[in-house]
Amino acid sequence: MDNCVYLSEEGLSKIKLELIDLKKNKRKEIADELSLALEYGDISENFAFDEAQNKKAFLEGRIRELENLVKKAKVVDSKITKKSSQIGCSITVKDGKGKREKYHLVTMDQTDPLDGKISIDSPIGSALYEKNLGDRIVINTPNGSLEYEIIEIS
Fold first, then answer.
1. pLDDT tens digits for range 106-134
2. Calpha distance 128→136 (Å, rounded)
3. Residue 59: its H or E element
4. How remote is the C-alpha of 26 from its chain's centroid?
5. In this model, does residue 80 exceed pLDDT 60?
6. Which of 23, 106, 114, 121 has its CA 20 to 30 A from that of 131?
7. Burial class (CB in 10 A: 0-12, 13-18, 19+), 68
8. CA 148 to CA 103: how far, in whole Å?
9. Domains contained in the chain, CATH given
10. Nearest to 51, CA basis, from 43, 39, 42
């Protein structure tokens, strides 16, 4: 994978809406909190001021994180071909013992491992992404290597 972040159109829209809200509304709310806290006087022992400063730092960090995501975003369109695995595909693999696993490849904003939805940015997802029916893949994990054969793409 390159340095981009794969997102659905819907996921990118959600990020942009959150970014607008943080910049227009949340920044103003925190600025108001800071102004109010300054009215209490001495800031050296002013809990309200410290709390507002912490909120401001967290907010600015979140804004930078979202701006970075937007810059790196690559909107993907799932084109299921049944031969090559793409975003939106369900992929069934089997290991050397015949045990089957099914994964659904999604973008980062749609990940839900408990429902079998794995991001193409994850180790398993990136190993399965753009592979073909019958391909064998090896995934290195902290517990050792996992070897699979792709037996179905739908």
1. 888 788 888 888 988 888 888 888 888 88
2. 9
3. helix 47-72
4. 23
5. no
6. 114
7. exposed
8. 12
9. 5-75 (1.10.287.180), 90-153 (3.10.50.30)
10. 43
